[in-house]
Write a structure and sequence with these properties.
Rossmann fold, alpha/beta, 345 residues, Quinone Oxidoreductase, Chain A, domain 1, binds NADP nicotinamide-adenine-dinucleotide phosphate, 9 helices
Length: 345
């Protein structure tokens, strides 16, 4: 059966900060399923800062979109028709496709079955999804997190940052978050249990504020922001410290982002700096998902979702990420949650 759907496509290439007018909602018909395919009706789609890297028409670490392409995103949805031997109607999956009400999948690439029903589906796009996994593998695999370390996290009130800080806290580390504004910093201290939060928007010298919050120095910097932020923390790094390059949100809208200045400390303090692409760790996600889910269910890790209503809400939600408007993970709800509907019966 041909499936009518609605999708958000790229209307024009973006040079600076994204705006709602860069996108448009289009109606399309998805073709009949072929053997080996299944059709997903999305319940929630994600709004990710990293998507910005694909929207300028220029080469990046992922291939750029063409005008008229559906904008990439993660989603959770219900399989409503299947001609695939391994995926059945009624299963709930998370997959990487785009801002679209429906997706046809061949069951290849990034796809997760969601069977743990202890948490709302939104968690599988945030704390148990790409955001939480980036925090988990960035700290545990890349940085070799261990008890007693001092960890600084930037864009700390976001989905990745807040997960990273809490993973470190649970490991017995001292955790300092850097975030914009008193509300976010208050939430980090009061709800997420960070030891200290630096409000970089109301601090003249972020480097000094971090140094004061970390009198014994910093062992791990988990950075989501970019080189200017990293440069301010480098003078506080301890011998053999690690800088995890998770994201560079301050650079995504900048054609000519700044380089690093304080590189001498890499010699004197034997620092190392390493990035990650979270999908490299996909074979080990199940264990990490289970551990994170247990911590969330136990109340040891908290998270915030901001869920807007309908596909039309997505471009505005996306543009707001670059103005610091979001309080946690931004998602858009396209349909009611089928897990919840089942529980309410
Ligand atoms: N490596 C990977 O595999 C991987 C996977 C997923 C995500 N990531 C990266 O992880 C990072 C965090 O993702 P997220 O989904 O949790 O989003 P997020 O941190 O909530 O991103 C939005 C936040 O970034 C901050 N921000 C925006 N512009 C900024 C600027 N110019 N300078 C400093 N801060 C700025 C704002 O917070 P404030 O109000 O605090 O400024 C804003 O609320 C992103 O950079 C993303 O690309 C990496």
């Amino acid at each position: 059966m041909v499936q009518p759907t609605r999708q958000i496509v790229l209307k024009r290439f973006i040079d600076e900060a994204p705006s709602e007018d860069d996108f448009e909602v289009v109606e399309r018909e998805l073709p009949d399923l072929r053997d080996g395919q299944f059709l997903v009706r999305n319940v929630l789609v994600s709004v990710d800062p990293g998507t910005r890297a694909r929207l300028s028409g220029k080469p990046s670490y992922i291939p750029p979109l063409k005008l008229g392409d559906v904008v990439g995103a993660f989603s959770v949805g219900e399989i409503i028709e299947s001609r695939h031997p391994d995926y059945a109607e009624g299963e709930i999956v998370s997959l990487a496709d785009g801002w679209s009400e429906h997706v046809i999948s061949k069951g290849r690439g990034f796809i997760r079955r969601i069977t743990d029903r202890r948490l709302p589906l939104s968690a599988w796009l945030g704390v148990l999804g790409v955001s939480g996994m980036t925090a988990w593998f960035g700290l545990n695999r890349v940085a070799g997190l261990s008890e007693g370390q001092t960890v600084v996290v930037t864009s700390a009130a976001g989905a990745v940052g807040s997960a990273a800080g809490q993973i470190a806290r649970l490991k017995g580390c001292r955790v300092i978050g850097v975030a914009g504004g008193p509300e976010k910093c208050g939430w980090l201290r009061d709800a997420a249990g960070f030891d200290h939060a630096v409000d970089y928007k109301n601090t003249d010298d972020v480097g000094k504020a971090v140094a004061e919050a970390a009198p014994d120095g910093v062992d791990i910097l988990f950075d989501n922001v970019g080189n200017r932020m990293i440069d301010q923390v480098i003078p506080s790094m301890n011998l053999n410290g690690t800088i995890v390059v998770s994201g560079q949100i301050a650079a995504y809208n900048d054609d000519d982002p700044p380089g690093l200045m304080n590189t001498r400390a890499f010699i004197t303090h034997r620092l190392k700096m390493q990035g990650l692409v979270v999908f490299d760790d996909l074979p080990n996600w199940s264990e990490a998902e289970k551990s994170m889910a247990d911590s969330v269910v136990a109340g040891d890790i908290v998270y915030r979702d901001e869920i807007s209503d309908g596909l039309e809400s997505v471009p505005r939600a996306f543009a707001g990420l670059f103005r610091g408007e979001n309080r946690g993970r931004r998602l858009a709800r396209l349909r009611p949650d089928p897990f919840k509907a089942e529980a309410d019966k």
